[in-house]
Amino acid sequence: MKTFNIAHQEYLRRNDQDWKNIHHSIFGENIPHHYEWNTRDEIIRVLNAIGKVKDSNHIFFPSGGGMDLEGAIFSHEKDCIELNAGVPCVLKPCKLVFESIDSDFNWDYFRVEISRLRPSGVYENYHADANEEEVLELSPLNYIKWHHWYDKEYQGREIPDSAREVFRILKAPWSFSKRHLFIILIVQHTMAGMNCWELQGLKNMLPACMLTLKSWHKTDSL
Protein backbone atom coordinates (compact mmCIF):
# COMPACT_ATOMS: atom_id res chain seq x y z
CA MET A 1 0.00 0.00 0.00
CA LYS A 2 2.85 2.39 0.83
CA THR A 3 4.44 1.72 -2.56
CA PHE A 4 1.10 2.41 -4.26
CA ASN A 5 0.68 5.70 -2.37
CA ILE A 6 4.17 6.84 -3.34
CA ALA A 7 3.52 5.97 -6.99
CA HIS A 8 0.16 7.72 -6.89
CA GLN A 9 1.64 10.88 -5.40
CA GLU A 10 4.37 10.85 -8.05
CA TYR A 11 1.71 10.50 -10.74
CA LEU A 12 -0.22 13.48 -9.33
CA ARG A 13 2.96 15.56 -9.14
CA ARG A 14 3.87 14.73 -12.72
CA ASN A 15 0.32 15.34 -13.91
CA ASP A 16 0.26 18.75 -12.23
CA GLN A 17 3.53 19.69 -13.88
CA ASP A 18 2.34 18.49 -17.30
CA TRP A 19 -0.79 20.62 -16.95
CA LYS A 20 1.32 23.68 -16.08
CA ASN A 21 3.58 22.96 -19.04
CA ILE A 22 0.53 22.99 -21.33
CA HIS A 23 -0.37 26.44 -20.04
CA HIS A 24 3.12 27.79 -20.65
CA SER A 25 3.45 26.16 -24.09
CA ILE A 26 0.28 27.95 -25.19
CA PHE A 27 0.56 31.30 -23.37
CA GLY A 28 4.18 31.68 -22.32
CA GLU A 29 4.79 33.07 -18.82
CA ASN A 30 1.72 35.29 -18.58
CA ILE A 31 -1.36 33.10 -18.08
CA PRO A 32 -4.61 35.04 -18.73
CA HIS A 33 -7.78 34.66 -16.71
CA HIS A 34 -9.77 34.35 -19.93
CA TYR A 35 -8.80 33.82 -23.54
CA GLU A 36 -10.58 32.92 -26.77
CA TRP A 37 -9.50 31.51 -30.13
CA ASN A 38 -11.93 32.13 -32.96
CA THR A 39 -10.42 30.64 -36.12
CA ARG A 40 -10.13 26.97 -37.00
CA ASP A 41 -6.37 27.34 -37.48
CA GLU A 42 -5.93 28.66 -33.94
CA ILE A 43 -8.31 26.13 -32.41
CA ILE A 44 -6.53 23.23 -34.08
CA ARG A 45 -3.12 24.53 -32.98
CA VAL A 46 -4.17 24.73 -29.32
CA LEU A 47 -5.98 21.37 -29.32
CA ASN A 48 -2.90 19.73 -30.81
CA ALA A 49 -0.76 21.22 -28.03
CA ILE A 50 -3.15 19.74 -25.46
CA GLY A 51 -3.40 16.40 -27.22
CA LYS A 52 0.35 15.79 -26.98
CA VAL A 53 0.25 15.42 -23.19
CA LYS A 54 -1.02 12.10 -21.88
CA ASP A 55 -3.37 12.17 -18.84
CA SER A 56 -4.10 15.87 -19.30
CA ASN A 57 -5.99 15.46 -22.55
CA HIS A 58 -9.35 13.95 -21.61
CA ILE A 59 -12.34 15.28 -23.52
CA PHE A 60 -15.90 14.97 -22.21
CA PHE A 61 -18.72 14.30 -24.64
CA PRO A 62 -22.19 15.85 -24.38
CA SER A 63 -23.99 12.52 -24.03
CA GLY A 64 -21.68 11.39 -21.24
CA GLY A 65 -18.34 9.63 -21.07
CA GLY A 66 -15.32 10.75 -22.99
CA MET A 67 -12.06 9.86 -24.67
CA ASP A 68 -8.47 11.07 -24.75
CA LEU A 69 -7.80 13.80 -27.28
CA GLU A 70 -4.81 13.05 -29.48
CA GLY A 71 -5.07 15.97 -31.86
CA ALA A 72 -7.19 17.88 -34.37
CA ILE A 73 -7.20 18.52 -38.12
CA PHE A 74 -9.36 20.32 -40.66
CA SER A 75 -12.45 18.34 -41.62
CA HIS A 76 -13.70 17.81 -45.16
CA GLU A 77 -17.04 19.15 -43.93
CA LYS A 78 -17.43 22.90 -44.42
CA ASP A 79 -16.33 25.04 -41.45
CA CYS A 80 -15.66 21.92 -39.35
CA ILE A 81 -12.70 20.36 -37.61
CA GLU A 82 -12.04 16.74 -36.81
CA LEU A 83 -10.87 15.65 -33.38
CA ASN A 84 -8.80 12.50 -33.08
CA ALA A 85 -10.17 10.98 -29.89
CA GLY A 86 -9.90 7.27 -30.52
CA VAL A 87 -12.47 7.71 -33.27
CA PRO A 88 -12.79 10.75 -35.54
CA CYS A 89 -15.23 13.34 -34.17
CA VAL A 90 -16.45 16.04 -36.55
CA LEU A 91 -17.76 19.30 -35.12
CA LYS A 92 -18.34 22.89 -36.20
CA PRO A 93 -16.50 25.16 -33.74
CA CYS A 94 -17.46 28.73 -32.94
CA LYS A 95 -14.56 29.29 -30.60
CA LEU A 96 -12.25 27.67 -28.08
CA VAL A 97 -12.33 29.32 -24.66
CA PHE A 98 -9.82 29.12 -21.81
CA GLU A 99 -10.90 30.01 -18.27
CA SER A 100 -8.47 30.29 -15.34
CA ILE A 101 -10.16 29.70 -11.98
CA ASP A 102 -7.23 30.48 -9.70
CA SER A 103 -3.45 30.51 -9.52
CA ASP A 104 -2.82 26.81 -8.92
CA PHE A 105 -3.81 25.88 -12.53
CA ASN A 106 -5.50 22.62 -11.52
CA TRP A 107 -9.02 23.94 -11.96
CA ASP A 108 -8.46 25.83 -15.17
CA TYR A 109 -10.30 24.44 -18.15
CA PHE A 110 -10.89 24.72 -21.88
CA ARG A 111 -14.25 24.50 -23.57
CA VAL A 112 -15.25 24.34 -27.21
CA GLU A 113 -18.38 26.20 -28.20
CA ILE A 114 -19.92 24.76 -31.34
CA SER A 115 -22.60 25.56 -33.88
CA ARG A 116 -25.34 23.12 -34.66
CA LEU A 117 -24.39 20.62 -37.35
CA ARG A 118 -27.13 19.27 -39.61
CA PRO A 119 -27.65 15.48 -39.67
CA SER A 120 -26.00 13.83 -42.66
CA GLY A 121 -29.30 12.52 -43.99
CA VAL A 122 -28.35 8.86 -43.99
CA TYR A 123 -30.89 8.12 -41.26
CA GLU A 124 -34.51 8.69 -42.31
CA ASN A 125 -35.95 9.34 -38.85
CA TYR A 126 -33.08 10.75 -36.85
CA HIS A 127 -34.17 11.94 -33.40
CA ALA A 128 -34.31 15.73 -33.22
CA ASP A 129 -32.80 15.75 -29.71
CA ALA A 130 -29.78 13.64 -30.63
CA ASN A 131 -26.43 15.18 -29.77
CA GLU A 132 -24.34 12.93 -31.97
CA GLU A 133 -24.63 10.94 -35.17
CA GLU A 134 -22.60 7.79 -35.75
CA VAL A 135 -21.93 7.09 -39.43
CA LEU A 136 -19.63 5.02 -41.61
CA GLU A 137 -17.45 7.06 -43.94
CA LEU A 138 -16.66 5.28 -47.22
CA SER A 139 -14.72 8.26 -48.56
CA PRO A 140 -14.62 11.96 -47.64
CA LEU A 141 -18.20 13.27 -47.25
CA ASN A 142 -19.62 9.92 -48.39
CA TYR A 143 -21.50 8.65 -45.34
CA ILE A 144 -23.71 5.62 -44.92
CA LYS A 145 -25.43 3.99 -41.94
CA TRP A 146 -23.01 2.61 -39.39
CA HIS A 147 -24.47 -0.91 -39.32
CA HIS A 148 -23.16 -1.61 -42.83
CA TRP A 149 -19.74 -2.08 -41.21
CA TYR A 150 -21.04 -5.32 -39.73
CA ASP A 151 -22.73 -6.28 -43.01
CA LYS A 152 -19.29 -5.92 -44.67
CA GLU A 153 -21.00 -4.75 -47.85
CA TYR A 154 -23.09 -1.88 -49.17
CA GLN A 155 -25.22 -1.96 -52.32
CA GLY A 156 -23.56 -5.19 -53.41
CA ARG A 157 -19.99 -3.94 -52.89
CA GLU A 158 -17.56 -4.80 -50.14
CA ILE A 159 -16.89 -2.14 -47.54
CA PRO A 160 -13.35 -0.85 -48.30
CA ASP A 161 -10.59 -1.22 -45.71
CA SER A 162 -10.26 2.57 -45.72
CA ALA A 163 -13.81 3.01 -44.38
CA ARG A 164 -13.99 4.40 -40.87
CA GLU A 165 -16.42 5.10 -38.07
CA VAL A 166 -17.12 8.82 -37.60
CA PHE A 167 -18.96 10.63 -34.83
CA ARG A 168 -20.60 13.84 -35.99
CA ILE A 169 -21.29 16.18 -33.06
CA LEU A 170 -24.64 17.74 -33.93
CA LYS A 171 -25.11 19.77 -30.78
CA ALA A 172 -23.89 19.67 -27.22
CA PRO A 173 -25.14 20.91 -23.86
CA TRP A 174 -22.87 21.95 -20.99
CA SER A 175 -20.92 19.15 -19.36
CA PHE A 176 -18.60 19.19 -16.34
CA SER A 177 -16.31 16.74 -14.62
CA LYS A 178 -13.66 16.75 -11.93
CA ARG A 179 -10.45 16.56 -13.96
CA HIS A 180 -7.55 18.85 -14.72
CA LEU A 181 -8.66 19.37 -18.29
CA PHE A 182 -12.17 20.36 -19.21
CA ILE A 183 -12.92 20.46 -22.91
CA ILE A 184 -16.62 21.12 -22.79
CA LEU A 185 -18.58 20.91 -25.99
CA ILE A 186 -21.56 23.24 -25.94
CA VAL A 187 -23.91 24.30 -28.67
CA GLN A 188 -23.75 27.95 -29.64
CA HIS A 189 -26.20 29.60 -27.25
CA THR A 190 -28.07 31.47 -29.94
CA MET A 191 -29.02 28.14 -31.51
CA ALA A 192 -29.80 26.26 -28.33
CA GLY A 193 -32.56 28.46 -26.99
CA MET A 194 -30.23 29.86 -24.32
CA ASN A 195 -30.08 33.62 -24.27
CA CYS A 196 -26.94 35.62 -23.48
CA TRP A 197 -28.12 36.38 -19.94
CA GLU A 198 -28.57 32.67 -19.14
CA LEU A 199 -25.19 31.78 -20.64
CA GLN A 200 -23.42 34.51 -18.68
CA GLY A 201 -25.14 33.36 -15.50
CA LEU A 202 -23.86 29.85 -16.08
CA LYS A 203 -20.34 31.12 -16.65
CA ASN A 204 -20.51 33.19 -13.46
CA MET A 205 -21.34 30.04 -11.49
CA LEU A 206 -18.13 28.27 -12.53
CA PRO A 207 -15.69 29.77 -10.00
CA ALA A 208 -18.00 28.91 -7.08
CA CYS A 209 -18.51 25.39 -8.41
CA MET A 210 -14.78 24.86 -8.77
CA LEU A 211 -14.08 26.14 -5.25
CA THR A 212 -16.63 23.63 -3.93
CA LEU A 213 -14.98 20.82 -5.88
CA LYS A 214 -11.58 21.87 -4.55
CA SER A 215 -12.83 21.65 -0.97
CA TRP A 216 -14.16 18.14 -1.66
CA HIS A 217 -10.85 17.17 -3.25
CA LYS A 218 -8.88 18.34 -0.20
CA THR A 219 -11.23 16.45 2.13
CA ASP A 220 -10.93 13.26 0.07
CA SER A 221 -7.14 13.43 0.11
CA LEU A 222 -6.87 13.66 3.89
Short description:
By secondary structure, the chain is of the alpha+beta class.
Overall description:
By secondary structure, the chain is of the alpha+beta class. Residues 173-202 and 216-222 have low confidence and may be disordered. The chain starts with a helix and ends with a helix. 31% of the residues lie in helices and 30% in strands. The chain is globular and about 60 Å long. It contains four helices and 13 strands.
Structural descriptors:
single chain, 222 residues, alpha+beta, nine-stranded mixed beta sheet, 4 helices, 13 strands, 31% helix
> Could you describe the largest sheet, including whether it forms a barrel?
9 strands, mixed
Bulk shape:
globular
Q: Strand-residue fraction?
A: 25-35%
Structural class: alpha+beta
Radius of gyration in whole Å, from Cα?
A: 19 Å
Mean pLDDT: 76
Please report the number of helical segments.
Answer: 4
Secondary-structure blueprint of this entry?
Elements: H1 2-27, E1 34-37, H2 40-51, E2 58-60, E3 66-68, E4 71-74, E5 81-85, E6 87-99, E7 109-115, E8 132-139, E9 142-145, H3 148-151, E10 153-154, E11 157-158, E12 164-169, E13 183-187, H4 196-221
